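Write out this protein's structure.
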Amino acid sequence: MVSCRACPRLVEWRERVAREKRAAFAGEEYWGRPVPGFGDPAARVYVLGLAPAAHGGNRTGRVFTGDRSGDWLFASLHRTGFANQPESVAPGDGLELTGAFVAAAVRCAPPANKPLPAERESCLPYAREELGLIGPRVIVALGLFAWNAACDLLGLRPRPRFAHAAEHEAPGLPVLLGSYHPSQQNTFTGRLTEPMMDAVFERASALAYGKSTASPSSR
């Protein structure tokens, strides 16, 4: 996956960002390639985001690592028992996920953080392969773009309606849960609060492990 060059627009952007860099990270070596998912290979909860941030995952090489959205996500995963620490700065920082695997619908950083539907479709085989290997019981989709990607992965037609805390269950498939994306646009405006995001992961834990289980880390 990390050698994929299927989408010329994304390849040009991710590599240009890696060359030009942000001033705050001028001394760092950017990853500048597709960003793989990471986490517990036996995860019961698969978290699907939008795409790596230009100066986050595209810089660090680990999805949701090194940007504000990741700060919000991993803090919630920590509070709900899926992560051993609330921060993710760089690979090798000690972060470990238990019961969760985190990935993105599109694996390359897109211009303006807006991948095209065709780029999503080109990238979905990587998530499909991960789902086949992991076999999660729950998919948490962060935002409408990821929700639509998850619906395509699960073959849901028509797509169920997205909303925060939306839940869709079909026989033989993982339960699909929706959450607003932890972007600054949502977190700074109060559209997404910490209790709202925690409630989604608490519900994911209940579905994946049973209501009597306090958290995945306790199993």
